[in-house]
Amino acid sequence: MVKIALSDVYRNYITCLNQQDWLQIEQYVDNDVYYNDKQIGLSGYRKMLERDFYNIPDLHFNIQLLVSDGPYIASRLSFDCSPKEKFLDLNINGKRISFSENVFYEFQKGKIIKVWSIIDKAAIESQL
Amino acid sequence: MVKIALSDVYRNYITCLNQQDWLQIEQYVDNDVYYNDKQIGLSGYRKMLERDFYNIPDLHFNIQLLVSDGPYIASRLSFDCSPKEKFLDLNINGKRISFSENVFYEFQKGKIIKVWSIIDKAAIESQL
User: Fold this and answer.
1) Closest approach of B19 to chain A, Cα-based (Å)
2) pTM of the entire structure?
3) Which CATH code for domain B2-125?
């Protein structure tokens, strides 16, 4: 049952991101969250997401694959979007690109405490 | 029990890679294996790995995080190695680099049938 619940929490988290509901996000993300081994905290996490949506107005998170084994979730996310200018130091300038992100989450007391994300930069480069 | 077995199969697969045991690998990888949505088959898979070890003589796979939920495995692998020349189109020329790979596997009848891998190219670039 715990495992099913964690997948559900994660799916609700992704819905929250897609709705850009920056108040609700504290239900899913711990105050002391780490992103790629750096502690950025909830406010840093929120800022990162707000910046992403500002730079990529049509950003949408799609879960392609979800592997759950509490307290961990691994997710392969797919994106099909048009970053306005730069993304990952690449000049995109509004071009539509498709790419994936493979990301791991560690949960603590029902909230995300650690994230290890890798975005497929090579795939983006091959589209430019 | 099935879940535990799958993690064990995966750990044995990684040991097989680190031993460069290219005969044993057919115990773990399906004849019709796909790599990043392209069907490369067992022979293509073996060639890819042999090429990797040729280009990176000190290549070693380290499991940092393993999430198992049959028929899927998600693994975060870490590397600390010195590619001889180019790697991911970057000029490394023997420099020692550290990076991660976030990778998903789908198993079928106990063997890997699909792999979706992303290597952290941005992390490598930041070390050059």
Assistant:
1) 27
2) 0.95
3) 3.10.450.50
